[in-house]
Amino acid sequence: MAVESRPLRYFVAVAEERSFRRAAERLGMAAPALSRAIRNLEAELGVRLFERSTRVVELTEPGAVLLAQVAPALEALDAAVRRAQRASAPNRSVLLAVKADADGGLLEDVLAATAAEPDAEPVAVRLCGWREHARLLRTGEADAALMFEPYDSGGIDADVVAVEPRVAALPVDHALAGAARVRLADLGIGLGEVDERAERDIGEQGVHDLAQLLALIGLGVTMTVLPRSVAARYPRQGVAYVPIEDCPPAALVIAWPERSRNRGVAALVRAAVAVAESRGMGAAVEAPG
To answer: How would you class 104 by CB atoms within 10 Å of its CB: exposed for 0-12, middle for 13-18, buried for 19 or more?
Structure first.
């Protein structure tokens, strides 16, 4: 049975909004027309997708199964269209998603090295937010991403580019600020929370980015854990960076959409790995200090 994508998009909107009215507003159509389209889809599939009441719309079990399969499929379809359109552009380039100052200090050298690679294409950098890289890859809004683990790996392939030590970012008047090195236990940080620490701290402190978080650290409000290269990009008078001797290293990866056959992306990946290896960052973690 072949089902057109439009009614499936209607279905996803209603499922996400849990309201025909809100879904209709989101889609720019009348609620009665949307309701008819959903009923036609249910008739075509032979299943009931929603439990309807005067106050709320809930997915049935078949509806939940359909949503889990259809939402990523529609996202992949939209991504394929975006990639095809970019591939046909006369001055096409590889879109590389990077968060500002979260590139391991490698970005400039990677771009230069990529230009010398066979099959290289121009690389356009797209600056993005914290943990936004994977979404941009899946939606076709980026061809590659340079990002730190962890990330949502669904539909994404990646190579580890570099590994580097992490440091504690402490207020300068903190009792451990003058230490040669510290341990996670000294900081009250568990091993399992290291990867998410900075992201969690940004959310809990009500700030929007690392620069604002560091301002709070300088005021003595909090502390966090960062890759050493990120700390090097953000010197602050009120912040002390102290190596953590028992902290797992930060892993920087170059990622791309699963099953990508983009030669320009392949050239970018080769260049990124080579640059990291040339700096001694690719094979082993250097000692903190």
So the answer is: buried
